[in-house]
Specification:
Number of helices: 4
Shape: globular
Radius of gyration: 13 Å
CATH class: Alpha Beta
Number of strands: 2
Strand order of the largest sheet: 1-2
Bound molecules: zinc ion
CATH architecture: 3-Layer(aba) Sandwich
Number of domains: 1
Strand content: 5-15%
CATH topology: His-Me finger endonuclease fold
Distance between the termini: 36 Å
Length: about 110
Amino acid sequence: MTTAAFKKLRRAVFERAENQCEGGCGRWITPDDAHLDHMFGRARRQESVSNCWALCITCDTAKTVNQPSAAHWLNRFIVHCEEHGYLPEIEIAEARLESLRAKGLTT
Ligand SMILES: [Zn+2]
């Protein structure tokens, strides 16, 4: 992805967020004090408006270390995708949750 394309993506995500953390914590954010998080990892899928979300530093840090759990963040991302109608991303997140369940990692 080019720098210009990434800037455009970042702008679109932050516009959608309307200055509120999309991780569900309710904190107010600005593009200067929040992170653009790629839910599924940059190496696996091209970043897009539907698989990136704007997270406050607290949520971004917690998600990075899977606190309280990876399943928590997948569930939160599913809620976020449902709000915005990102159906393919919901399927990916559900598949990941299923994989965690199969390993007994959802408690
Ligand atoms: Zn947050």
